[in-house]
Design brief:
Layout (H helix, E strand, L loop, with lengths): L26 E6 L7 E6 L11 E7 L2 E8 L7
Length: 80
């Protein structure tokens, strides 16, 4: 006796959802080491003053409503 199981595969659609928009008001500075690279890099240091805790994982970074980078951030708790 054989038992046959039929599986119906359902297509999965992935959605990207904006959870929150947070203005971090960063401090910018340029970093360059000419001996190692001919490029200079804009770096930012920001303080999370929002009521949200930012979880570790990928995030998109926008500056003046323009996409500038995709980052993988560490977990940032809200500032007290």
């Amino acid at each position: 006796m054989y038992c046959v199981t039929l599986l119906k595969l359902v297509s999965v659609t992935l959605f990207q959802v904006t959870v929150a928009l947070v203005d971090l008001s960063p401090d910018f500075h340029y970093n360059s080491v000419p001996r190692l690279s001919p490029h200079s890099f804009l770096q930012a240091k920001a303080k999370n003053a929002s009521p949200y805790t930012m979880l570790a994982g990928p995030a998109n970074v926008f500056m003046d409503n323009n996409f500038i980078a995709k980052v993988n951030n560490i977990q940032l708790c809200k500032s007290i």
